Amino acid sequence: MKKQYLSILIILCLLLSMLAGCKKPNAESGALADPQQVVSSSAEQPTDDPITDVLSETPLAVQDLTAEAVYTEEFPLQPPDEEFIRGQMDFSVELFRQIAQKTPCKNTLIAPFSVSMALAMTANGAEGKTLEEMQKVLGGHAIDTLNAYYLNWRMALQGGEKTKLHIADSIWIRDLQGFEAKDAFLADNAKYYDAQVFKAPFNSIGEKAINEWVEEKTDGMIPQLIEELRPETMMILINALSFDAQWSDPYSEHQVRDGIFHSIDGKEQKAQMMGSTEYSYLEGEGAIGFTRNYLGGRYAFGALLPTETSLEEYVATLDGETLLQILKNQQGTQVRAQLPKFSSEFGVSMNEALKAMGMPSAFEGGFGKMSNEDLFIGNVLHKTVIEVHEDGTRAAAATAVEMDKAAAPMEEPKVVTLDRPFLYFIFDRETNLPIFLGSLTSLQ
Prior knowledge:
alpha+beta, Alpha-1-antitrypsin, domain 1
């Protein structure tokens, strides 16, 4: 009887051992593992798939690095004075002249403030001859002084309660291993220009992020500043402006009448002319005009009408000092003014204009204080929009300074001209074995 019990016990032990063998042992602990857990953990293991590896290394998000730009809280007091004003007016008028000469017979509109702010941000990364030229073009001040001027001017401009003038600056850095912007450069731009700092992939994701930022900062008036990010562009510095103001004395319905506007090509165009009586008359050699205030009095609209020459000829002879004196010598004389309702959009690359104004070196290099790479200005892109109507004016501008890295020098190409009999084949890349092989000895 005992032998029978012993035999049954041995058989049961053998069955239990066989069942235990069906369980997969855990490699780390030796314990029995749940088959579902084994499948799950193996799916998370890295693979040798090169496509997966490339995708995992491709940056797909924009990083906000603004908080990492550290600077002192001491802000120099340097409100705009006569010297600064003259320098900025010279820059504004000369830039307009250069652009107008290159875009004849077109509606030209620039925002000199936006351009000068973007260039001043860029100049914080310049050195040597490049810095000297940029400082001269921007009014002749050292970059530290210019920073202080712009800081105080920007804060004063945004202090109005009756009108909306929004100023925004940003720096976009290509998310590329080994490329870094220098801390001091970012800190100066954060301190003086309140510049946000972003690291982004310079692909469709980066383009979308930059354009969305510009659209937001221009109150939706400029939905697209960057059309395509070029492979050589490593950094972009952007200034964006939006202006929205009501007239201090809006036009009433009966002040808006049908009229005629004579275009530059001599054609007559139907227009909605807004009539008013103003008390600020402008007069200079070869031109007359008026100014009209926006609500709050900080901002005004001004116009000059050439009386002796064409507009193109008048602009060609205009300089900063002339315009400054015309505005300084406004007369409190009654003016019966007529202003057409209009809207205008304008976009231009300012490279050639800025070179002609005296800063060609910036388009060759000289930005050692900006990053660990030798960069140069590849493009200064500027876009503007304006709407002038019965109630007031809306306007926006954006300026992008694209900083490029020089491409590797190209080797001299080889030359192969198949103008005599030749051998040809279609082959398998994997084995290099020809699938088709032939020769061409005649085209007849």
